[in-house]
């Protein structure tokens, strides 16, 4: 922990430095190698040029001395002797330049023999002009010419050797550069990737934590590892999660307490109204009976509203994973349809069902609440002699429940609001159908807690079409396998005359 950077910016600087330093070292190494190679090549070229120029001048001077010396022995012309001495001086100058260029030991021996032959020829020159032995002089000049040509040849070979050495050195530098790049580049990339992970992982964890809080996940602890400023931000998010948990618990406690406190006087009001309605103690007039009836109905409505609010607050809470069981959605729908037989009879509604055997993971009470809201809406908003269609199937590895009615439907401007809390549509107001506006909001919260969806689909004919989608368990029965139909509600149409239901969802 002591080595952990104090901020994300420092971590970025460290990562950038560690990734770029190897590349800088390679660049510096290559630069020094190329500079040394260029310097060495320059020295070699200048030396080769100097030796080649000196050898060429010595060769020309030796030839001139041989020509002027032999002519002088024949013509006895002092001008030729002067020219000979000038060529000899040029030879000495070129010889000094050649020796300063640093010739090889072999070239030094050639240079020494060349000087000896020329010295001997200069000493024989006056004697031969007076009638001495001419052949010895010619031999000295011939040997001197040979030595000069050897020097010229050695210099040319030396230049070729130096050029080959420079080529070899250049190839070695090229290979070294490629090797260093191939070695350092993956290392720099690995360091860069490592620090990218170290930088983005805590940021990604923060993003996940914020998204989890936004989705209502208050159970998963938030722990962010990384630089101190990011870790500190993670600690603040953990504090926020605990604070939200405390607020959620306080809200639920308040709602439970409030509902309990409100139910007690409401129960007393309702019971008192019922006693008055039964004319216990004295007679009531018609107007008094109407007032008592209004008090009783509104107390019941207020009690249902309180219960729905409490149920909605529970729906927003997290689902207990250990309480999830494999539930037959088919059985849940069948039982609910049986409970609605009286309502179906009272309004002469026709029921068309097609229920496949489908099992989903969930809580039986929550699944029952979801389906009950959809079915109760269809029954309550359907006019006399209408048809309600209930279709349950497996599609795309999901349980799909379609509930269609022939009621007034949902206006286009209300489609986005129909699942909002306490929203009651125009159909409810126009039809004077009582409801709290919490049913679909509760159903949607339950469905989202299971990772499913609840949508209002377009329908060509009048009425509403709600589609419920829930993820399946690992073991789902084929479409054709059905549970025994105790109430005669599967794959057929029934027309039954029934009683109006009290609870209102939409």
Strand order of the largest sheet: 6-7-5-4-2-8
What number is the mean pLDDT?
77
CA-to-CA gap between the ends? 56 Å
SSE pattern: HHHHHHEHHEEHEEHHEEE
Number of helices: 11
Question: What's the total count of β strands?
Answer: 8
Shape: rod-shaped
Q: β content, as a range? A: 5-15%
What structural class do the secondary elements suggest? alpha+beta
Main β sheet profile: 6 strands, mixed
Unreliable sequence segments? 427-433, 475-506
Q: Radius of gyration, Cα only, in angstroms? A: 54 Å
Residues in helices, as a percent range: 55-70%
Protein name: Signal transduction histidine-protein kinase/phosphatase MprB
Subcellular location: Cell membrane
Transmembrane segments: 12-38, 178-199
Pfam family, one: HAMP
General description of the model:
The chain has 506 residues and is an alpha+beta fold. It is built from eleven helices and eight strands. The strands form two sheets. It has a six-stranded mixed beta sheet. Strands 1-3 form a two-stranded antiparallel ribbon. A hairpin with a 2-residue loop joins strand 4 and strand 5. Helix 1 packs antiparallel against helix 4, helix 7 packs across helix 9 and helix 9 runs antiparallel to helix 11. The two termini are 56 Å apart. Its EC number is 2.7.13.3. Its cofactor is Mn(2+); Mg(2+). It is found in: Cell membrane. This is Signal transduction histidine-protein kinase/phosphatase MprB.
């Amino acid at each position: 922990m002591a080595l952990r950077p104090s901020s994300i910016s420092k971590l970025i600087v460290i990562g950038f430095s560690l990734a770029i330093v190897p590349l800088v070292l390679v660049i510096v190494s290559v630069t020094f190698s190329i500079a040394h190679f260029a310097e060495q090549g320059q020295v070699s070229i200048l030396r080769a040029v100097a030796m080649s120029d000196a050898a060429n001048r010595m060769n020309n001077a030796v030839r001139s001395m041989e020509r002027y010396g032999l002519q002088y022995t024949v013509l006895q012309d002092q001008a030729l002797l002067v020219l000979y001495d000038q060529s000899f001086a040029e030879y000495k100058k070129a010889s000094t330049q050649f020796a300063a260029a640093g010739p090889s030991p072999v070239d030094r021996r050639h240079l020494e023999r060349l000087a000896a032959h020329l010295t001997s020829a200069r000493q024989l020159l006056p004697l031969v002009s007076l009638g001495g032995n001419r052949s010895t002089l010619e031999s000295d000049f011939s040997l001197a010419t040979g030595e000069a040509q050897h020097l010229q040849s050695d210099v040319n070979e030396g230049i070729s050797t130096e050029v080959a050495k420079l080529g070899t050195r250049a190839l070695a530098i090229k290979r070294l550069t490629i090797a260093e790049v191939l070695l350092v580049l993956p290392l720099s990339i690995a360091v860069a990737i490592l620090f990218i992970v170290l930088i983005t992982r805590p940021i990604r964890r923060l993003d996940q934590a914020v998204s989890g809080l936004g989705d209502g996940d208050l159970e998963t602890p938030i722990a962010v590892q990384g630089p101190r400023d990011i870790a500190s931000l993670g600690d603040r998010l953990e504090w926020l999660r605990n604070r939200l948990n405390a607020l959620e618990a306080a809200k639920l406690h308040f709602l439970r307490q409030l509902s309990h406190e409100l139910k007690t006087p409401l129960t007393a009001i309702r019971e008192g109204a019922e006693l008055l309605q039964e004319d216990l103690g004295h007679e009531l007039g018609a107007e008094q009976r109407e007032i008592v009836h209004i008090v009783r109905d509104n107390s019941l409505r207020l009690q249902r509203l309180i219960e729905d609010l409490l149920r909605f607050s529970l729906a927003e809470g997290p689902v207990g994973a250990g309480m999830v069981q494999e539930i037959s959605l088919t059985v849940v729908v069948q039982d609910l349809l049986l409970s609605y037989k009286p309502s179906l009879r009272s309004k002469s509604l026709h029921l068309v069902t097609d229920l496949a055997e489908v099992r989903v993971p969930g809580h039986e009470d929550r699944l029952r609440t979801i389906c009950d809201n959809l079915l109760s809406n269809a029954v309550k908003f359907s006019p006399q002699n209408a048809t309600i269609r209930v279709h349950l199937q497996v599609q795309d590895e999901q349980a799909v429940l379609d509930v269609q009615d022939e009621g007034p439907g949902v206006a286009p401007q209300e489609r986005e609001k129909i699942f909002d809390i306490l929203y009651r549509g125009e159909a409810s107001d126009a039809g004077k159908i009582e409801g709290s506006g919490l049913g679909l909001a509760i159903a949607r919260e339950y469905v989202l807690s299971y990772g499913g969806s609840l949508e209002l689909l377009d329908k060509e004919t009048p009425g509403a079409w709600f589609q419920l989608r829930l993820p399946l368990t690992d073991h789902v029965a084929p479409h054709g396998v059905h549970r025994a139909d105790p109430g005669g509600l599967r794959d057929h149409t029934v027309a039954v005359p029934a009683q109006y239901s009290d609870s209102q969802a939409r």
